[in-house]
Structure prediction request, 410 residues.
Amino acid sequence: MSGRRSVADALDTRAAILRRAADIASVEGLEGLTIGRLAADLEMSKSGVIGHFGSKEQLQLATLDHAADLFRLRVWEPVRHLRPGLERLLGICASWTRYAEAPGFAGGCFIAETSFEWDGRTGPVHDALVVVTGRWRRTLAAEIRTAIAAGELAADLDPDQAVFGLEALAAGINPARQLHGETQAPTWALRTMHAILGVSPATAS
Amino acid sequence: MSGRRSVADALDTRAAILRRAADIASVEGLEGLTIGRLAADLEMSKSGVIGHFGSKEQLQLATLDHAADLFRLRVWEPVRHLRPGLERLLGICASWTRYAEAPGFAGGCFIAETSFEWDGRTGPVHDALVVVTGRWRRTLAAEIRTAIAAGELAADLDPDQAVFGLEALAAGINPARQLHGETQAPTWALRTMHAILGVSPATAS
DNA sequence: TTGAAGTACGAACGTTCGGTCGCTAAATTG
DNA sequence: CAATTTAGCGACCGAACGTTCGTACTTCAA
Prediction:
């Protein structure tokens, strides 16, 4: 009844842990995630859970990576094939706000949640978060610069300022929906993103 | 060496606890706030701390109220005397972004932090947060509607969408500064707020 | 067939959590 | 001056925390 079942099962177990961990952490935060709670939910022992990661901090890092993978899969992958520049940028805005509406986690977008939870702290999780969000920021900035170079966006648009605006709006969907039940928040965010980029609704659709 | 000192001291003690609690919670979150940590920082016993509030949840609610008071004092009070409508609205944007730049807490704006921490949870703290942020949203929306009625803002501006945008931008300053060291974030936020309202830089200054 | 590697268990570890209790002593009230 | 109230302390509780350890069992390689 106990012991290892198979390599495939083991990989499944680890994946199942991370899936559940991301779900819990999206509500309780990455620090509010506890090994005991995780074990109870998965009907495992605590040592069985932590054995896959070694420590809680490693579990947190793995959970963050898992969530980042999911974010890329849901936001970046669908628009990856589009032409670099404005077309792909608008695609990102669309898939991003769509993702924020239904991120697949119980508590909303994991990355946004964690950014606010860990921005004031220090340590490996903070640093990993900087890497993950920094990479996304650079992707956005590059796309904007490409669009400007192609004449698709105004030459006087500040890419860094635009990236800041887009990120803030996407993150803002979380509390708007869960605190105030603003179901229109994703639509508002998308419209305001277009305004920031100086794109007319006609061009955007 | 022990025992009560005076009523004035007692009020000071309570205020000192709340001040320190808000400071800790701005970094560690309202849940990461612990009575033991608080007692150690203030060189008190745990029972001496919790005696002022009764339970941790009451302490959390009091801390939230305290932070909301400070927010009102720093953001609303300075522009309270201004003429309702666009003038006061622009004043709010200015004091708001200034506040987000130096909120007086170790970990950035407390309200923004807590909004993301508690948006997915339930209970009294969540409910209190809804009240606090809801009141602020209504204040903003009313100011925008006044400005529209006076012809100072475009008639087709959606007040709720604008409120969503302003709030998202103000909150976004937190992780931008603390995660990526973007010292320009407050300036970016203010500029984008003006863009959302359809106000030209000339009018704004 | 035997041995190594790996997966999970259950029990225990020391610590910290929120919270309670009885007490002391100062301030307030009469 | 006596009685009441109250701030704060220190000891303590049960529960939950992250973590370690020895053990059982399965799978895979030699």
